[in-house]
Queue: 2 jobs
Job 1
Amino acid sequence: MRFHTFLLKYGEIGIKGKNRYLFEDALVRQVRYALRDVDGEFYVHKSQARIYVDCDGEYDYEETVEHLKRVFGIVGICPVVRMEDRGFEELKKDVAAYMDELYPDKKMTFKVEARRARKTYPRTSMEMNRDIGEAVLEAFPDIRVDVHDPDVMLHIEVRDSIYVYSKIIPGPGGMPVGTNGKAMLLLSGGIDSPVAGYMISKRGVGIEATYFHAPPYTSERAKQKVVDLAKIVSRYAGPVKLHVVNFTDIQLYIYDQCPHDELTIIMRRYMMRIAEHFARKDGCLGLITGESIGQVASQTMQSLAATNEVCTLPVYRPVIGFDKQEIVDIAEKIDTFETSIQPFEDCCTIFVAKHPVTKPNVEVIRRSEEKLSAKIDELVDKALETVEIIEVK
Amino acid sequence: MREIYLDNSATTRAYDSVGDLVRKVMCDDYGNPSSMHAKGVEAEKYIKQAKERLAKLWKVQEKEIFFTSGGTESDNLALIGAARANSRAGKHLITSSIEHPAIINTMRFLEEEEGFRVTFLPVDKYGRIRLDALKAALCDETILVSVMYVNNEVGSVQPIDEAASIVKAYNRNILFHVDAVQGFGKYRIYPKRMKVDMCSISGHKIHGPKGTGALYIGEQVKIRPVIYGGEQQKNIRSGTENVPGIAGLGLAAETIYTNLDEKVASMRNLKAHFIDGVRKIDNTTIHGLYDETSAPHIISVGFAGVRSEVLLHALEEKGIYVSSGSACSSNHPGISGVLKGIGAEQEYLDATLRFSMSEFTTKEEIDYTLDTLYNIVPMLRKYVRQ
C-alpha cells in the first residue's frame, strides 16, 4: 500500500503552554534533519497541532520509518493514505478497499473515528462513523465492531483531501533535541556511556562528547570505535562534537607520583576536570557519564563522590540505578552494542591495579594529588591545547 | 614522518610496474577473456602470459595453473576440492598445528561438516613439523597432507622435500599440498621435483595486487570445484577471471624472482644485523631458528614485560609498522597458537612482535628501528600493570 503522508503524534510537548510552538518547531527541524539523507522529497509541516510529513514522490517506506523512529519527541508515526474527496459514496468504497488491502485477514474488531478539520463537509463526524462503519461491515462478513477496545482504530480525517490511517508505529518518545540545551558526554568506548548519552538526549538535550586516548597504550582502532559510537548516538542526538584528548602523559605522571591503587580514581578526577573545561567552553549545561553504582571499583558510592567533587557543573548519570543487563538491552535497541563490544583496550584499564581502592577517602585522594603539583597543570594545559575535535554526524 | 614498513609478511607494497600494468588492463584492455571479439582475445593474452610466467618459475605446465582470489581461496580449493573428490579412497587428512588459519579452519570445516578425520602434527621448538609424527599419522585412510612452506609467524621453513618423500613412499596416491604463500618469492619452489601435487600462492605477498592468488594443481590430481558458475578455468574455478589482478600477479612473480639470490642475501644480512642489535636489549628472545635454515625475511622477537600491542603502537608513532604475532590472526585477541606450539615461554606469549622485511628494506631503516627500540622498550617496561 502506498502511503502519501506520515502523521506524527507527539505527547508531552503538546502540553507545554505558550512555549509549545518552540517545541513543535524543534520537532519539525529534527524531523527534517532525520530525513535529510533519505531518498525522496519530504515536506515537513505543522498544521493544527499536528506534524505531517508529506511524501508525494518516490520514497522508501521502510527507510523513512526507520529514520522517523529515531526522532525524539515523536510518540507515534501514522502512515496515512490520502484520498481525493470524490463524494461520500466513493469514500466508503475507498475506505473498504483500504481495509481490504491493509488487513487481508479480517478476523478482528474495529471502530471508525472520523474528524473534520473542514467543517463544511456534508456529513457530521457521527454520521461518518456510522455509515463508513456500516460499509466496512457489509464488505467483510468476518469483521466486528468494538467501540471500547477495537483491534483497529480507523481514523478518517476530512481536510482538503481525506486522510485515512489506522496504524501507529511507536516512536521513541522524549522531547525534540535542542529544546533543552546541551551536555558533555564522557564517551569511553564501552557499553554504558553511549546509552547514557542516548538517554539524556532523549529529553531534548544536544550532545557533545569527550574521549580520552592514550597512545601507544590505546590504538587508532580504539579511537575509531569511539567515533563510530558517537556516530550511532548522533542518529538520535544530532551532530556530536567529539573532543579527543591525549591523556598519556597525564596518566604516566600520575603513575609515577601517586599510589598505584589510587591511579584510576585520580585519573578519573582529571578526566572530569578536562571534560568540564570543554563543556564550559561550549556552553554545555552539565556532564553525562555512564556510571552505575557498584559496577566497578571506580563506581562505588565513595568513588563516585570522589570524582564528583571536582566538578562544578551537574553530573548526570542516567544509568546509575541500572543493572548491566538493563544497560545492554538499551545498547542493543539503539544499536551501539555490537560496536561497544569490539575488544580494544581503553585508557581506563591499561594500568588498572589488581586491587584498586574501592572506598577512596576524598582527603587521602586530595593529598595524593598534591604530589602532582610540580607538573600537572602544564600537562593538563598541553592536553587541552592538543585536543582533536571531530564533528561527527 | 618517515615510513618504515616492516610488515611485509602481512602484505607488501606493489611494484610500480605492477600498478601500471593493472591500471592499463583495467582501463584500456578491459575485455572479458570469454568474449569472442578482439577485446576478449586481448584480455585472454594477459592470462596466458601470467600462466607462462608462473609455469616457468614453478617448472610446471601452464594447464596446471589456476587463478584464485588469493591464498585463502587457493587453500580452500586445494583442501575442500581434493578431499571431496577423493573421499572414496579414505577420509583422513593430515596437516600441521602451525598452519595459517586458511588451512586450519578449512580442515576444521572438513572435520566438523564433512566427516573427515584430521591429524594436526606437532612441531619442534624451532617451529618445524615432526617427521616422526607424520610417519606415525599416515594410515590406509589418508588421502591428503598439507604443510606450509614457511611459517608466517616465526619464519620456520618446513622440511617439505622430506615430508613429501615420506608421504609418497607410504602411498603415492596420497595428495601433498603446500601452502607456499610466505615461501614463494623467497625460495625457488619446484612442485614436481618435490613430489608436491598442489601449491598455493598469493599475489599481495610478492608486491602484486591484493585479491589475487594462484593454485598449482598437478594434472594427475582429482579435484572438484568449490564454487560453481560459468565454467571458466576448466570449470575448476568459475567466475570471470580477474584479468588485471592476474596480469599483476604474473608480473610481480617474474619481478621478484629477478636477481632473487642477491635480494635474499641482502635480507639475510639485514636479518643477522637486526638480531645482533635486538640482542643488546635485555630479556628478549628470538623465536624459532634464525640461521640460514630460516626464512630470510621474518624475525619474531619476544620482549619480556612489554605488551606487544603497546610496543606496536609505540613503534607506529615513530613511523615503523610491524605486526604482533601474525596480522591475519591479530584481529582476534588471544595468544598465538604458533608460539605456544613451539613452546615459547609464558612471558613472551603476549609480548612478541613480528618484523618482516622485503627486498626494499635498507640497513639504515633497520638501524633506525633498532635505535627506536632502544629508546622505547625500557620506557614501556617502566610503566606496567601492577
Job 2
Amino acid sequence: MRGDGHGDRRPGAIALGFDAYGRLELRRADGTVVQDVTPVRAFPLSAPGEGISLVGREGREIQWIDRIEALDPASRKVLETALAERDIVPRIERILSVSTFVTPSEWRVVTDRGDTTLTLRAEEDIRRLGTRALLVADRHGIHFRIDDIERLDATSRRLLDRFL
Amino acid sequence: MTQAARFPTEPPLAPGERVLGRLELDFDPAGRFVPGELLLTDGRLLARHGSGGWTAVELEPGMRLRVSDHAGVGTLELHGPAARIGRWRYLMRRQDQAAEFADLARQRLSGAEREFEPEARCPACGAELPYAGASCRACEAAEPADTAPATWTLFRLWRFARPYRRWLALGFVLTLASTAATLVPPYLTMPLMDDVLIPFQNGQPIDTGLVGMYLGGLLAAALLAWGLGWARTYILALVSERIGADLRTAAYDHLLSLSVDFFGSKRTGDLIARIGSETDRINVFLSLHLLDFATDVLMIAMTAVILVSIDPSLALATLLPLPFIAWLIHLVRERLRTGFEKIDRVWAQVTSVLADTIPGIRVVKAFAQERHESQRFAAANQHNLRVNDRLNRTWSMFTPTVSLLTEIGLLVVWAFGIWQIAHERISVGVLTAFLAYIGRFYTRLDTMSRIVSVTQKAAAGAKRIFDILDHVSSVPEPADPKPLGRVEGRIELRGVSFRYGNRTVLQDIDLVVEPGEMIGLVGHSGSGKSTLVNLILRFQDPAAGAILLDGTDIRSLGVADYRRHIGLVLQESFLFFGTVAENIAYGRPDATREDIVAAARAAHAHDFILRLPHGYDSLVGERGQSLSGGERQRIAIARALLIDPRILILDEATASVDTETEQEIQRALDNLVKGRTTIAIAHRLSTLRQADRLVVLDRGRIVEQGRHEALLAARGAYYRLHEAQARLAAAQFGTGSGQGPDGGPAEAAHLGRAAS
C-alpha cells in the first residue's frame, strides 16, 4: 500500500491499455488494475513529453509518469494515442481570411486537421509561446497553435500581424 | 447547393421511423475537421461524416450515453453493457444542442416519451429560451462582427457631438469667415504690385493715397483674421473638451455596467489607459488637428477658386501637383494606420507590466525578483522600440517628400509664370499674388499631411473606446424588468450549469434555500463554490438552468434592484478611499450617523473605530489609515448590516484572519446572519457549525447535503474533508494560546471621548 499518491515510479512498473469502452486502464506490477484513467499533461506547452498524470474518475492523481519514454513501447503507444485523442490542438498552417481586424474577428484557417473557422474574441487571446510560436484561443475553447510565424506564407503573416 | 452540401445523402430511414433529434458533428473519428451529423430516431442513432455513408447503431435498453468535454471539444459516447459502441465529437459551441440531444437520447433509452411543454422561443432565431423575454444566448454568441475600418470609427463620435451641434455650426461659420479673411492679403499684393510698384519703376510717382488704402486693407484683413481665428479656436476647443468629457463619462459608465467576467479578462492598466489617455487623445484631435485640417481644406478650396478666377492656365499649373500629393498621402496612410494601432497595443503592454508589478511589489521584493521584473519591463520596452522603429522608417520619409514636392511645385509656378509674363499674358502682380498664395498653400499641404497620422491615432483610440462601449454586458438588463416587491428570500437553483471558457465549472445544480435558512457551501477549492455565489449575485448568468428568487427568474429582475437585496462580505474586504463612516454607508449613502454607529456596534467594529485617531471620520482605503484584515472585515460586515439585506453572502469571510479575530468576527457575523437567507462559503469547516444545512460540492456537482453531524455520520466527501482539516488543526497546536485582557485601549478611548 503506497500512500504517496504518485504510484510506483520505477520504469516498467506500470503498463497501459485500453478497455472495451476505449478507456485507458492502468495495470500495475502487483497485478492491480485501475480502470478509466485520464491522461493529463502537466506541461502541455513547455514540456509535453514530460510529467504526465493519470487521473482517476474522482479527479485524483493515480499515477505520475515522469517521462513518456520511460514506458515500455506498447504502453507508450497506448498513452500517445490516448493523449492525441484527448488533446485536439490543431496547428494553423495558413490563414485564408479574417472577417475584420477589429475583434471579435472570425478567421478562416487551414490546419493540420482540415479547414475550419475560429473566432478570436480579443487580441489578448493570442498567447505568445517563446518568440515565434503562438497559441490562439477560439472563443469556444479550442486552442490553435502556430508553430512558427516565420514559416507562414506572406498573406497569413500580414493578416496575423494586424492582431499582434 | 447548400442543401446538397448539408444532406449529401438522405438518412436511410425505415418506413415510419422518425428523426427526433439532430446534432451537428465537427470532427471525423480521426479528429480532423470534417462536418457531419448525428441523428436520433425512434430506435437508432445514425451518423455521417462528410460525404461518407451513414452508419447506424440500434438503441437497446441498458445502453448509456456519456457526454464529456475537454479543451473545447465535446464528446458524446454510447456505451453498451460491455463495450463502447460509438463516439462522436463536436465543437463546444454546440454544447446546448448536444445536451439536448443527449437528454432526448436518454429518454429514448429509458423508454419514456419526452413531454413537450409550451416553451419560450427566441423571436430572432427560434432557439429555446429559459423563460419568456430572456435574451437569446445563441443570438448573442453570433454577435455581428464589426467590419468598419478604423477611420470610420471617428464618425461614430457624432453621437457625442450631436448635443453641441449649434456650437459646432457657429464654429464652422467662424472658420469659414476667418479663412476668407486670411486670403485677402495676397489678393491685395496684386494691385499693390501692378498699380504702385511697377508704375514707380517705370518712372511714375507713388500714389500715397492708394498705398495707404491698400496697406490699411492689409491691416484690417489681418486684424479681422486674428479676431475671427480667436473666436473659432476658443469655441471649438470648448466644444471638443465637452465631447471628450462626455465620451469619458459614457465609457466609464458603460464599463461599470459590464459584468464581472469582462474585468477578469481585461488588464487594469489597459482599461485605465483607454478611458484616460485615449479619450484625451481624441479630444486633442478634435480641438486641434481636425480643426486645422478643416481650415486647410477650406483654404485650399477658396484659394483654388481665387486662382482660377485670376488666371485659369496658371492656376492649372499650380494645382497640378495636388492630386499627386494626395495620392502619396493615401499610400502612406495605410501603412501608418496599422502601425499606430500596433504601437497602441504595445504601449498597453508596457503599462500592463507596471500595473502588474506595482500592486504586487511586496511579492516582487520578497522573492527578490526586481531584476526579473526589470527585464520584463525592458523587454516590453524593447518591443515598443522595435515597433516604433519600423513605423518611423515610413514616417520619416513622408514629411521630407512632401517638402520636396512643395519646392518642385513652386518651381513649376515660377517657370510657367515667367514664361507667361514674357508672352505678356499676365502681369508681374498676378505672379506675385500666385506665389504668395501657394507659399501658404503648400505649407498647409505639408501640415495637412500630418492629419494622416493623427487621424489614424485618434481613430485607433476611438476604436479602443468603442470596443468598450460596444461590449454588451453578459448580464443583460431585462427589457421589461419585473417589479420586485417585498422579498422573502427564497432562492432556488434549477438545473444550473456554468462554463468558464471551455471548462465546465458547475453542472446541473439543483438547490433550494428557504427564507431565513443558512447554508454552508463546502468543497475543495475549484469545486465551484465561488462560481455558484457569483451566479446568485448575478455577476454572471448560468449557461443553462435558472436561478429564482421567490419564484421569479432573477434574469427578469432589474440587476441593481435585485442586488440591493443582497449583502456581500468577501474574504478580502475592499475599502474605498474615504472615511470609515462613508465606507460603512457605501450601500446606503443616506444613512444617518445613528444608523452607521448601530451597524458598527452590531458588527463589533465600534470599539476599534473609536480607537482610530479621528473615529468614524478617519480616512481609510488605499491612501488612508491602514487597518488589519479583521478590522476591514468588520467594517465590511457593518456595511452589509446597514443595507439590511434579505439575502446574505459570505465568501470566505473569516479566511484571512487569525483565530482570535475570527471569534470576534464570528460574533459579528452571528448578528448579521440572524433572520436572513444566508449562503456562506468557508474553507474552514469549523466556521460553518451554525449552518442549518451544509452543501458539499465536488467538481461542479452537489455530492452531499445535510447537517454537520449527519454528514459526518455518512462518512462521505464531507467526512473526508473534515478529517483532513482535523489532522491539519492537530498538527498546528499552539495557535490561539489564551486571550489576553482586551478592551483596555478601547475603554481608554471611550473614556477620553466621554470626557471631551
